[in-house]
Amino acid sequence: MTTYVALLRGINLGATNKIAMPALRAMTEDLGYTDVATYINSGNLIFRTPKKAATVERALSGAIADTFGLTIDVMVRTDAQLKKVLDDNPYPEANPSQLTVAFLAKAPGPEAEKRVAAAAAEHEPFAFGDRCVYVNYSRGLANSKLAAQFSSIIGVSSTVRTIRTVAKLVQMSAKS
After folding, report:
1. For the sheet containing 2-8, what is the strand order?
2. What is the domain extent for residue 22?
3. C-beta of residue 82 within 8 angstroms of C-beta of residue 161
4. 59 backbone dihedrals φ, ψ, rounded to 5°
5. b vs e for 96-105, b when ≥16 Cβ sit within 10 Å of the residue's Cβ?
6. How far apart are CA 60 and CA 9, in angstroms?
7. Do 65 and 128 fall into the same domain?
8. Residue 69: predicted pLDDT
9. Can you give the chain as a three-state secondary structure string?
10. Do 19 and 61 belong together in one domain?
11. Nearest one of 53, 49, 66, 148 to 105, comparing CA atoms
12. Torsion angle of C-alpha atoms 15, 167, 163, 133, degrees rounded to 10
């Protein structure tokens, strides 16, 4: 059995894409996954299954469409992959509420790094990892052009979590 963390893109943002966490857990259990847990209300799902990650992504996306009528991108990582994201953090001294990790649905194209560099402000250092991008929004995300348009700039679907959330998900997945 593999422990996975599924990161759902764009749910429970204001009035859009509403999914209650108890209903999400029940849907996930109905797929046959075990030790299901969620963390906060933004689509962080931890569970165990022997299935491959790509199969799990398709199954979750399909079940969300069938159950909630929503088309949601789902990024799945093993607990080991998520721990590596945390361990590889290039900005360990950053404010954990301002350092984000964008989890990418697939590897970005060869021009992605140039596009991010063009959009990032001088005070927004970034680093590409394995299907992820770290961005240190040292002056906050609220007024950042990069933060506002990240998925379109990077060119692939992504979902963003703070490094604090990543750390909590690593901690929770180690317990399952």
Report:
1. 34-39, 44-49, 2-8, 74-78
2. 2-78
3. no
4. -65, -45
5. eebbbbbbbb
6. 12
7. no
8. 95
9. CEEEEEEECCCCECCECCCCHHHHHHHHHHCCCEEEEEECCCCEEEEEECCCHHHHHHHHHHHHHHHHCCCCCEEEEEHHHHHHHHHCCCCCCCCCCCEEEEEECCCCCCCHHHHHHHHCCCCCCEEEECCEEEEECCCCCCCCHHHHCHHHHHCCCEEEEEHHHHHHHHHHHHHC
10. yes
11. 53
12. -100
Rounded Cα distance between 102 and 130, Å, is 11
Encoded tokens for 10: 């764009």
pLDDT, greater one: 42 or 82: 82
Lowest mean pLDDT segment, chosen from 12-21, 44-53, 76-85: 12-21
How far apart CA 170 and CA 3 sit, in angstroms, is 10
Tokens 């299954």: give the residue. 49
Q: Confirm if 98 and 160 have CB atoms less than 8 A apart.
A: no
| pLDDT tier for residue 45 given thresholds of 50, 70 and 90 | very high
The model's pTM is 0.94
Among candidate residues 45, 78, 111, the one where a domain is terminated: 78
